[in-house]
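Forwarding the complex inputs:
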Amino acid sequence: MDEVITLAHGAGGKASAWLIDEVFISAFGRDNPAELTDAALLAASGRLAFSTDSYVVNPIRFPGGSIGELAVNGTVNDLAVSGARPQWLSAAFVIEEGLGMGELSAIVQAMAAAAKRAGVRIVTGDTKVVPRGAADKLFITTAGIGLVPKSRMLGAGRIGAGDAVIGSGPIAGHGMAVLLARGDLALDADIRSDSAPLNGLVEALYAAGEPSAVRWMRDATRGGLGTVANELARAAGLGILLDDERIRIDPVVRGACDMLGIDPLYVANEGFFVAVVAADAADAAVRALRGAGADQAGTIGQVIAEPPGIVAIRNAFGGTRLVDMMIGDPLPRIC
Amino acid sequence: MRFVDEFRDPTAAKNLVRAIGQTAEKLGRELRFMEICGGHTHTIYRHGLEQLLPPSVEFVHGPGCPVCVIPMGRVDDAVWLAHQERVIFTTFGDMMRVPGTQGSLLQAQAQGADVRFVYSPLDALKIARDNPGREVVFFAVGFETTAPSTAATLVQADRLGLENFSVFSNHVLIRPPLEAILGTAGLRLDGFIGPGHVATVVGSDHFGFIPAEHRLPVVVTGFEPLDILQAVDMLLNQYRDQRRALENQYSRVVRPAGNAAALQLLAEVFTPRETFEWRGLGYIPDSGYQLAPAYARFDAERRFELPGQRVADHPACQCGLVLTGQLKPWECRVFARACTPERPIGTCMVSPEGACAAYYNFGRLHREAASIGMG
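Prediction (whole assembly, two chains):
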């Protein structure tokens, strides 16, 4: 096995074939052992959800995961919060010359494991190698297709005042894990990324009651809970009132945020989503999420009629404050 | 890192709020307390403390936001430095968005200047060691709180014999602007919430001149919401008992004489400037730190031929009045209209410790919507 990726691995010759067989196919498997076709042929009927995302996180490995898990879970989650059951993914790799073969292989195997966990198959892919400096180690783009059951209708237009806002777990783990993993802060803390597939939780949520009780979902990645809540308030033309005491944050994560002056509401997550459900369905929804493994899921706020388009948060003392859209990007290349 | 929880206990807060309400009612007069430090301003807005106080007690925001007090000319100098050949210009993140007449450091970065944000001057020192062919300049800002870490970094640079590292010092002292504010005609203040972080270095006794010379109470205070509520309670109790004294609420951290090692370091590495320009306050004598002669070779102002132009603040900007507590953020003529966190005109809108940014981000709601109900 070659020790590092060279430009030859992207040239289409022997080295490329070796890389595809030994690193990618051996991890992802293939349908037709006889030949490698140009496209995956898939059979489906009904409504489809289709999504794509690129992953450029720096560093490519961090406590709790790597760019590999992110690339699978991120696209799985975009499909899941659209109400879809994710089925198939594509994966395209832009690799910087010089990346260690062992490192690439470990990331590809992490992708295969993440796909297995999420119950999706990686059915097509592509590899390009670029000269040193033209990319930073490894960029991955995934696209995914999911099937959307007929009964599932989501949209900000379906939200009404009084609906409950549910959070699937603790926030801010991913962004802080990546920030600390960069190692340029003199701060060491045991913080892990929350990167995880959400499709199992979404299924549990739908199984808990009438599908129409689930109004809207979004995974709170870049920009965090604060940004997602603002997008929700603006799209719905309603207000969102969050309850500070009910938003779960690991104490170590909160301590690190406090020390660095970062508001955890704006820190990225990779395994956390927000669901708006009918008020009378909220308790069952939370129970279902907890039963499916999200043991810190809970109602974190509610939709209010006034003031429209505004997100506020009520703190433990009974004071409220505004949660605005995030300005700038405090933590670039987080996913 | 669980240490913050006990200072955010809602029950304790409710008890303090009740005590404050009772004392304020007995006193039956309006009281205006200035929180000197921007960290306090941030906590007050972030936790909605203003709404918890009786209407007769008011917070007035003070000058203790290190980013806010930097005048435009110094930002222009920083941008100029960042554009010099071979320079890696290092800065705290807050300073990146502060506008100068030639744009901000963020814009300089987009134009190709090598600007890097760091969390500590030691990070800048490391960059210098890793890049021996480059000139690394650290944009030093802050009161006596952060000046010791710049000083310690310079001592280390000296020990390492580094030749490609320099500091653009904008360090300032806390007492001179307070004297300036206390000397402002027509200003009505009834006491101070003293800056806990600065006091860890200079000591709580540093603020004894406020009761001694100006007959006003001061309580050196920590940064958790309960700390600030307790400080308000202590200030009110002084009025109830007809005292005007220096008290230390933050005694878990602050000593009367401060941190001797840090003060020694400051005395060794820095020397007071004859005068330094403050945004909105103008030139104040003996209010800034420059590098002492023994460290002059690390002084970016000597190493580079800085243009050093002094420019007037933006004519529409009223940061000066906000910084001296004479204007509330929303009373500024450009607040939330021409001046927002996305497109700031004044520094107070840039730093999260700036009164305008804190108010814009956290407090604005209460003037826009009087009440919000949840269950």
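The interface with chain A takes residues 1-5, 8, 10, 13-14, 17, 45-52, 93, 97, 118-120, 122-123, 225, 341-342, 352, 360-366, 368-369, 372-375 of chain B (CB under 8 Å).
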